[in-house]
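Renewal narrative, Specific Aim 1. Our central claim is that a sequence can be written position by position from structural information alone. The example that follows is taken directly from our test logs and has not been curated for this report. It begins with the structure tokens describing the chain, in the order in which they were read.
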């Protein structure tokens, strides 16, 4: 039974968060980095109970959860390191030039205010209560209120307690972190519309993310919603590569498609290639691969039912054939992988086939001509990832099509498979709509912090009253742009 946090209690938490922002906005990057490392320590110290609880609530295997816990700790620590180095402070100083009647101008990035984070169902640690959105919003200098995902309430509470402990030990105001629970959309809507909330971070369905985005834009004061939503992550395979590696590629594609019962936002749901013997070899190999994959419980009943419904609708579309599926007996909530095939013409004509089906569902699109592949590329909506399976020669021969694909994704892969999102600086996890609501930002990697800052410029302020990041002494020893040049020392004025 999940407790519904009352409106009065939510109001109180938002008020506390607004007050805490007044404290946090004046904290330095070093202080925030210390706090973030303290949260990482708290999560690291959580023992078996965390993994056992998450396993019971999500059905995710313990080994995967152990890996996700390590990743989550790594996120807090690596984001802390980047924050501490001043990477998102982006300090710029233009010294006065009295002879030109130009004053002193100093700009840096400050937090934007209380942020609401919606916990995601498919990563109970790394994208949920203590996940990357919370770490990046706090690193930027903002209090966070998490709306717990109803599919793992106990896991969420354990993580919330760890963050709360870190807040208490830091001596910082309690309102820096809040946790609200419930199973009704009303809570999320109420938080998003509240005047003291200044940004929203979300990972989940297109319907959910778009609804929150629209609410935020209809407010008297519109606020940003960084929503990561649906993506079909197409793989475009080309002639020479397919001829050389059809069977190996089928293995790689089959494993990526069915990894974690297909419940990854980077799951490669669509495979596009020219029809012919190489594609037939790929399909035959996939037919051998898929039936052997054991059915596994999906994350929650809603996700399972959604998967069942959509896979049945998609496979029943005209000119769509099921080429491989898992027929093994499955218990309630166990997702069974399925791969279908259609023609390029039909894929172009039937827009339902390019909607995300969250789970192990794949569609092979066999095209008549390279022009048909180009038309599919042009028609594609925005994606988190697109993969080009090609030799160098294939790239040279298909450069026009490949250039179109660049416009459609946040991460562009040359061979390999898109599942597995590394938490590094050069990661881009965010693409054109509808994969996310703002393709300019990433939700994975330290650059995720950038979503939650805004620039403020100080004109002619005495050094004493400037934030530490902009003072002449540069006591934080960060790199700054001074009069257009990179500068890491203090300013002797
Ligand atoms: P969801 O239905 O989008 O819900 C995610 C969170 O957003 C929940 O806390 C939910 O709150 C809240 N929410 C959703 N719609 C809302 C609305 N209109 N107003 C206010 N709050 C709203 O996602 P899910 O439960 O994780 O999974 C459902 C489907 O989402 C999946 O079948 C899949 O298609 C997709 N999904 C995609 C990704 C991805 O990375 N692309 C990841 C996970 C899920 P309440 O439920 O408490 O109301």
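The sequence written for that structure reads:
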């Amino acid at each position: 039974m999940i407790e519904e946090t009352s409106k009065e209690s939510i109001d109180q938490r938002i008020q506390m968060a607004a007050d805490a922002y007044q404290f946090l906005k004046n904290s330095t990057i070093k202080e925030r980095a210390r706090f973030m490392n303290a949260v990482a320590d708290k999560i690291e110290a959580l023992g078996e109970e965390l993994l056992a609880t998450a396993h019971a609530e999500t059905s995710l295997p313990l080994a995967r959860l152990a890996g996700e816990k390590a990743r989550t700790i790594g996120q807090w620590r690596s984001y802390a390191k980047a924050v501490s180095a001043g990477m998102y402070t982006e300090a710029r100083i233009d010294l006065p030039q009295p002879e030109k009647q130009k004053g002193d101008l100093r700009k840096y990035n400050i937090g934007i205010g209380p942020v609401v984070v919606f916990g995601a169902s498919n990563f109970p640690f790394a994208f949920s209560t203590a996940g990357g959105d919370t770490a990046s919003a706090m690193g930027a200098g903002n209090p966070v209120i998490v709306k717990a995902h109803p599919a793992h309430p106990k896991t969420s509470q354990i993580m919330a307690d760890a963050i709360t402990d870190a807040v208490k030990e830091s001596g910082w105001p309690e309102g820096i972190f809040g946790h609200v629970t419930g199973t009704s959309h009303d809570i999320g809507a109420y938080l998003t519309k509240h005047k003291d909330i200044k940004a929203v971070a979300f990972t989940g369905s297109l319907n959910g993310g778009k609804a929150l985005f629209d609410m935020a834009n209809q407010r008297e004061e519109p606020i940003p919603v960084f929503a990561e939503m649906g993506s079909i992550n197409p793989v475009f395979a080309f002639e020479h590569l397919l001829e050389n590696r059809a069977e190996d590629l089928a293995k790689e594609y089959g494993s990526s498609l069915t990894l974690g019962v297909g419940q990854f936002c980077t799951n490669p749901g669509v495979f596009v290639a020219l029809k012919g013997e190489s594609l037939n070899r790929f399909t035959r190999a996939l037919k051998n691969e898929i039936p052997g994959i054991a059915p596994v419980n999906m994350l929650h009943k809603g996700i399972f039912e959604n998967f069942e419904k959509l896979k049945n609708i998609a496979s029943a579309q005209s000119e769509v054939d099921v080429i491989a599926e898992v027929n093994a007996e499955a218990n309630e909530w166990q997702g069974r992988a399925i791969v279908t095939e259609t023609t390029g013409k039909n894929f172009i004509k039937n827009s339902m086939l390019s909607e995300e089906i969250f789970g192990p569902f794949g569609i092979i699109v066999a095209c008549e001509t390279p022009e048909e592949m180009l038309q599919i590329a042009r028609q594609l909506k925005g994606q988190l990832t697109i993969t080009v399976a090609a030799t160098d020669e294939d790239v040279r021969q298909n450069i026009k099509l490949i250039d179109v694909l660049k416009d459609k994704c946040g991460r562009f892969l040359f061979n390999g498979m898109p599942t597995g999102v590394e938490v590094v600086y050069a990661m881009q996890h965010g693409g054109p709509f509808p994969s996310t609501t703002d393709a300019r930002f990433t939700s994975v990697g330290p650059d995720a912090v950038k979503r939650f800052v805004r620039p403020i410029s100080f004109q002619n302020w005495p050094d004493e009253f400037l934030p530490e990041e902009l003072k002449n002494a540069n006591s934080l020893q960060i790199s700054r742009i001074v009069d257009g040049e990179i500068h890491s020392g203090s300013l002797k004025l």
